[in-house]
Design brief:
Immunoglobulin-like; 7 helices; alpha+beta; nine-stranded antiparallel sheet; elongated
């Protein structure tokens, strides 16, 4: 054999060796056929993600678990999970299932005739598929079978069980495999609560801790555990907090036994009702309720919870539990009198030294004694009295209705509005608490409002008279009892 023939033989041997190596390469190697590389998986003219109205996601079981089937449907601009349970979803998260599919570009194509050996459908995670997604539009249905994720940021996918396999970017696969559909849900515990709510009830299993609030003529009042004016700012903050409350985690979608979570006899139940007037003038009421059960575990004082209209059990944080179950006293108005000072027309004072009346005049105040004699009132004293009644107190306590107030009785003040009706009857008490001395206001409801004993005028006529009263028997009568 001459040198030329030897070179040709060696060259043919090298070529044969390279061909053999190519045939033996695994799934991560370049597939034998590459039609369609660089094209979109879906024709943009045939698949519009914004036209998708229903998505069905079926995931194969892992580690001996059960297959998962989730159905999402679009209503208006919102997406809802309708199987296995109804739950509002984060619109962006569900829309990404469609847009991720619409944006897929084919990197390589493996013809169905070549799906064998290391490139078999089983080896590529497509027999059976690891997940199946079906997109429904008004024009038709689009189906994708998802296989395994390969090295280098690519993944296997096909449109039909007997069709070609495509190598595409892994973005859709990552979204489907690396997150549970639960994580795409709206996490608001009370999704439709707004500050225009009409009623709020927090029922507690602990005696005396139930709170009931109702909005009357635009103002909030406490109905339980006592009846009194509510703190508008505190109630608005509470309702805003309830509306933004977040679910920390989803525990179980369809539990067989709620008793395990303490939800058959809840530790607390929160109910919010909102009345809205429709175009036809009729009032429609929406109602949302949340049940709180057992603590999550010994080291975590968060609690199990569920919405009354959903079967799923979730967990809420300990800090949110505290927000959901406030101290009733924190919702009580800190004002001894809810009437603004400019709306107060008269004050009837029943002090230790007798009874007298203060009436608002166009530019000042007039004092009237029990015998009807009158005199100009001392402006500074009246201002101090109004401050005590209309400025927020430092502390609020709730006691049983009719409980005697601790401390020395100083007197009582009846407050009249411009309708001449008595709107409040407040008793004043002096109380010692440790080294501090405070004044306590009681209105008979069970609410005690207190502040440090500073700038408190004596409840006697001399304190309020700018000069000696004259004209006995000529002034208006001083009512001994509040008008009904």
């Amino acid at each position: 054999m001459n040198i030329r023939v030897t070179i040709i033989v060696l060259a043919l041997a090298v070529v044969a060796g390279v061909v053999a190596i190519i045939k033996l390469r695994g799934p991560a190697s370049t597939p034998p056929t590459l039609p369609g590389s660089g094209q979109r998986l879906f024709d943009p003219a045939a698949f519009d993600p914004d036209a998708v109205t229903r998505i069905t996601l079926e995931r194969s079981p892992t580690s001996g678990g059960e297959p998962e089937r989730s159905v999402f449907e679009k209503t208006g601009e919102k997406w809802w999970q309708t199987e296995p349970m109804r739950f509002e979803m984060v619109t962006w998260s569900i829309r990404m299932l469609a847009t991720s599919a619409a944006d897929l570009t084919i990197l390589q194509t493996i013809a169905r005739r070549d799906l064998k050996g290391d490139l078999s459908a089983e080896k590529l995670g497509l027999a059976p598929p690891m997940a199946v997604i079906t997109y429904d539009t008004a024009q038709g249905q689009h189906r994708l079978e998802l296989g395994r994720i390969a090295a280098g940021g690519s993944a296997y996918i096909r449109k039909a069980s007997d069709g070609d396999v495509y190598v595409v970017e892994e973005r859709l696969h990552r979204r489907v495999f690396e997150a549970s559909p639960r994580e795409w849900r709206i996490r608001n515990l009370l999704s439709s609560v707004t500050t225009d709510a009409s009623r709020l009830t927090i029922e507690r299993s602990e005696a005396g801790r139930t709170v009931s609030l109702v909005r009357l003529s635009g103002k909030w009042r406490l109905a339980l555990p006592i009846e009194t004016d509510a703190d508008e700012a505190a109630v608005s903050k509470l309702i805003s907090s309830l509306g933004s409350m977040q679910i920390e985690s989803f525990v179980e979608d369809q539990p067989k036994d709620y008793a395990v979570f303490g939800l058959l006899a809840p530790w607390a139940t929160i109910t919010i009702e909102t009345d809205r007037t429709g175009a036809d003038g009729k009032i429609a009421t929406t109602r949302e309720s949340v049940l709180l059960g057992n603590p999550f575990d010994v080291g975590d004082s968060g609690r199990y919870a569920r919405r009354a209209d959903h079967p799923g059990v979730v967990k809420v944080r300990a800090s949110d539990v505290a927000t959901l179950t406030p101290d009733p006293a924190s919702l009580v108005s800190r004002l001894a009198v809810g009437l603004p000072r400019q709306d107060i027309r008269a004050l009837v004072v029943d002090g230790q030294a007798g009874r007298f009346r203060l009436d608002r005049q166009p530019e000042d105040w007039m004092i009237t004694l029990e015998d009807g004699s009158t005199a100009p009132a001392l402006t500074s004293a009246v201002t101090s009295l109004l401050d005590q009644l209309t400025l927020p107190c430092q502390n609020v306590e709730i006691v049983s209705k009719g409980t005697a107030v601790e401390g020395a009785y100083l007197g009582a003040v009846a407050v009249e509005g411009f309708s001449s009706n008595t709107v409040a009857q407040i008793t004043w008490h002096r109380r010692q608490r440790g080294d501090a001395v405070e004044i306590v206001f009681a209105d008979g409801s069970g609410a005690l409002r207190s502040r440090p004993l500073v700038n408190v005028p004596d409840l006697d006529a001399e304190t309020f008279s700018a000069s000696a009263p004259t004209g006995g028997g000529q002034g208006p009568p001083v009512h001994a009892e509040p008008e009904k």
